[in-house]
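To illustrate this point, we now present one chain and its tokenised fold:
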Amino acid sequence: MVTLLLDQTQLEVVLSPLERATAFRRENLRIVRDTITKVQLTDDAWTWIRGVPGPGTHIPGILAAGTWKASATTDFVLIRRRRPGVVIDLEGDAEFQRLVLTTRHGLALTQALRLDASEELADVEKIVSTSPIPVSQGRQRPVIRPRPV
């Protein structure tokens, strides 16, 4: 699961060593904050893949990691199974036009992008937790107790 770090100037997608190996990348992704045009939350990130896989790993329905190329676009994809994710559209970035990531921090990212971030990189979860804007923690599952005998 990717870690998202944000400051005033950039969004950094921190990849684990295994994610770097499957995506064929040597470094983390650094995206200039001004190039982010739209952020969308999705329940199924597989529907957002466009084009054909470039350098990277693709196991249908299980893992898609690396670069995906279409006719005029290049996307970075890191999807694991059928987990919720985030789609980040970029305009003016030198490397990619879209990022498709599975992460449980998508809601925190959208909220953190609306806030003024500090000058140093911080995890989006920490940015949102220290903000004055209330953040929903999600709903809790009801406790199912056995019936008395």
Summary: The two ends are 44 Å apart (CA to CA). Strands lie at 3-6, 10-14, 29-32, 36-42, 52-59, 63-69, 74-80, 85-90, 98-102, 122-123. The chain has a mean pLDDT of 84.
